[in-house]
Design brief:
This protein has helices at 24-33, 94-101, 103-106, 174-183, 247-253, and strands at 7-8, 12-13, 19-20, 62-65, 68-74, 118-125, 131-133, 153-160, 163-168, 190-194, 200-203, 209-211, 215-222, 228-231, 268-269, 274-286, 294-298, 303-307, 313-325. It is mainly beta. β17 and β18 (303-307) form a beta hairpin. The protein is globular, with a radius of gyration of 20 Å. The chain binds zinc ion. Residues 132, 134, 153, 209 line the site of zinc ion (ZN).
């Protein structure tokens, strides 16, 4: 397997700001057809031969929503996996690669080395997201609890002037939650913070939360799509009807004993991931670490790189870098 340092550099950028790692000529061809972000990336079929792993970059994977959009930077979820942008594995989907390479890619600390355990997104909220909660609990990929895969997440604020809603006011109980959902006064129960660039909020499973309008965050989360929508601010969907709420499930998932998340600027260590924010001056070295992959997000140019567990890398970058490992 490849243990030599590999230099990863941006070759081209889509007009939306997403990074597109190809030769300028190829990117030009695709731009000639349409905006890169409008192309639904497709996985290519597995071939029998497994090339050596190398630091991976991915095609833009954009999810538009009622309230803004999500850029799925690194995803192993089968319904919308990241697709490798260049190199010998170009076109291959991250969920397929995790199952083909196992711990060589994900690391020995992954709960199931053949499943990529985390999901990384940039969330650009123009309007506020619904108030939601995810189940807490066991590591992903062990046994799926009846209430759905658990999700602990964290946000790093990239920009915006809006608010962040994280946690219920101390002393709130289930009856108050139910009543405020029913009467449309749920905001009264939520702890709110102004979003400040560079601040982090750690949101363990069981915490009620929402991202406000005019906020952009980088989100690290357990790879799970279990979301219980508790309150939607009285909004209607594209069909003119209110979106479905999951109040009963949400009430079961809320942990009323959790302490209220506070904005912070320090390393985040939890049973599911380790996150740190650092500053690079020209380049960043990532060493081989058999226990874990390293996921990097370059704040200044919006570039993500996934360094597999059995690879080292020297990444050309400047400024703030967000690094996550298991
Ligand atoms: Zn969430």
């Amino acid at each position: 397997m490849n243990r030599g340092a590999t230099i990863v550099e941006v070759v081209a950028k889509c007009c939306c700001g997403s990074i597109y790692l190809r030769t300028a000529a190829e990117c030009g061809t695709i731009h000639g057809v349409k905006h890169v972000c409008d192309i639904q990336p497709e996985r290519t079929r597995q071939s029998a031969a497994l090339p050596e792993l190398y630091p991976l970059t991915f095609l833009p994977n954009v999810h538009n929503a009622l309230w803004g959009r999500e850029l799925w930077e690194i995803s192993g979820l089968a319904q919308s996996p990241s697709i490798v942008a260049s190199g010998a594995l170009e076109g291959r989907a991250l969920d397929d690669l995790a199952s083909a390479y196992g711990a060589a890619l994900t690391g020995t600390k992954a709960p199931r080395p053949d499943v990529f355990p985390l999901l990384f997104k940039v969330i650009e909220a123009k309007d506020r997201l619904s108030v939601q909660v995810h189940p807490a609990g066991g590591a992903l990929g062990t046994t799926r609890p009846p209430e759905g895969d658990p999700k602990t997440e964290m946000w790093y604020v990239l920009g915006g002037q809006g608010r962040i809603f994280a946690g219920l006011k101390p002393g709130t109980d289930a009856a108050q939650v139910e009543e405020c959902v029913r009467t449309g006064r749920f905001e009264e129960l939520l702890v709110q913070h102004e979003a400040h660039e560079g601040e982090e909020l750690f949101i363990p499973g069981g915490t009620v939360h929402a991202i406000g309008g005019d906020v952009t965050v980088y989100e690290v989360q357990q790879s799970s799509d279990t979301t219980y929508r508790l309150y939607d601010w009285g909004r209607v969907g594209t069909d003119g009807k209110p979106r479905q709420l999951h109040v009963e499930e949400a009430l079961r998932a809320i942990d009323f004993d959790l302490s209220v998340p506070q904005p912070q600027k320090k390393e985040v260590t939890c049973p599911y991931f380790k996150f740190r924010s650092l500053v690079a001056d020209g380049f960043l070295d990532v060493a081989v670490n058999p226990q874990t992959f390293t996921a990097l997000y370059m704040v200044d140019d919006g570039r993500s790189v996934l360094v597999p567990a059995n690879c080292s890398a020297r990444i050309a970058c400047n400024g703030r870098v967000l690094a996550t490992t298991l």
